[in-house]
Write a structure and sequence with these properties.
Elements lengths: L5 E7 L2 E8 L4 E5 L10 H7 L4 E5 L8 E2 L3 E2 L1 H11 L5 E6 L1 H12 L4 E7 L16 H12 L3 H14 L10 H17 L5 E2 L17 E6 L4 H13 L3 E6 L6 H4 L1 H14 L3
Parallel strand pairs: 3-4, 3-7, 6-9, 7-8, 8-10, 10-11
Antiparallel strand pairs: 1-2, 2-4, 2-5
Helix pairs in contact: 2-3, 4-5, 5-6
């Protein structure tokens, strides 16, 4: 039986957010990485929409969403998507920057969150500002490309860094994974000329993990950037109801590299916690 795909835009202060919703039942809301847009979840939409209501959206400044040069809250933007889709409580699933948004949103409006899944996630307040010695060269190349506004080169460098993994050989990840990250990153750079300023959660999440009372599922690829790997371990140790899943041969984009395993583990997580 075919399902009706709902698409549209959610009005927010100084912008509008593109979203898609399909299926019915328990709502799953997917929040993309900073080197992607909502298309990174294609395999998850196909897998989960026959059983659940699957919602994905482009965060402000990414994909088909639009913004003015304003100060804004990613948490309030997510809340606007939930309200527009008439979702009382959802499982939030976020990759990288999207994981950080999911965590911060769980802390900001816990009554709207039923469960939390993060992969290669950032964690507000975690990590050092200093660049590790082994990353000085690749990050320096990315900064130079950004300063030169060489968006094609920057997208290639970022895709190698995040898809293959820092200091991994080019082509370690499947070329399809590299290419989807590269193309989404490039389109974000050329199609989003205006930069809005995201307001950080204050106080940051690192000191508030005990407040997370919903089941938490943490995915990490051990070839990911060191701060992401350490943040995943830290969350596993400091959140009461946390499950930690590590893939030794995967980098930042767990759901793209291991979609079948990723989907299966989420199904088991939902069933085990009676969500």
């Amino acid at each position: 039986m075919s399902q009706t795909l709902e698409t549209g835009y959610v009005a927010v202060d100084g912008g509008e957010l593109y979203y898609e919703a399909v299926g019915s039942g328990l709502p799953l809301v997917f929040i993309h990485a900073g080197v992607a847009d909502s298309r990174m979840w294609d395999a998850q939409v196909a897998h989960f929409s026959p059983k659940y209501r699957v919602i994905r959206y482009d965060t402000r400044g990414f994909g088909r969403s639009k913004t003015e040069a304003v100060s804004f809250s990613n948490r309030q933007d997510l809340l606007a998507v939930l309200d527009h889709c008439k979702v009382d409580r959802a499982i939030l699933i976020g990759n990288s920057r999207g994981g950080s948004i999911a965590i911060d949103s769980t802390l900001s409006f816990p009554d709207r969150v039923k469960g939390l899944v993060v992969l290669g996630s950032g964690l507000g307040g975690f990590g050092s500002e200093e660049i590790p010695p082994d990353l000085v060269e690749p990050i320096g190349k990315m900064q130079a490309a950004q300063e030169a506004k060489d968006w094609a080169l920057l997208a290639e460098l970022e895709a190698r860094f995040w898809a293959d993994g820092p200091n991994q050989p080019a082509g370690r990840a499947d070329n399809a994974v590299y290419e989807v990250v590269r193309s989404m990153t490039y389109e974000n750079y050329i199609n989003q000329p205006v930069e809005a300023a995201a307001q950080p959660l204050d106080p940051p999440a690192i000191g508030r993990l005990a407040e997370i009372q919903v089941p938490l599922l943490i995915f990490i690829g051990l070839l990911d950037e060191a701060d992401c790997v350490e943040a995943a371990k830290y969350m596993a140790e400091h959140v009461t109801n946390a499950q930690y899943v590590a893939f030794p041969d995967v980098a930042h984009m767990v759901s793209l590299e291991k979609p079948q395993e990723f989907n299966r583990i989420i199904d088991e997580f939902i069933d085990r916690n009676h969500l």
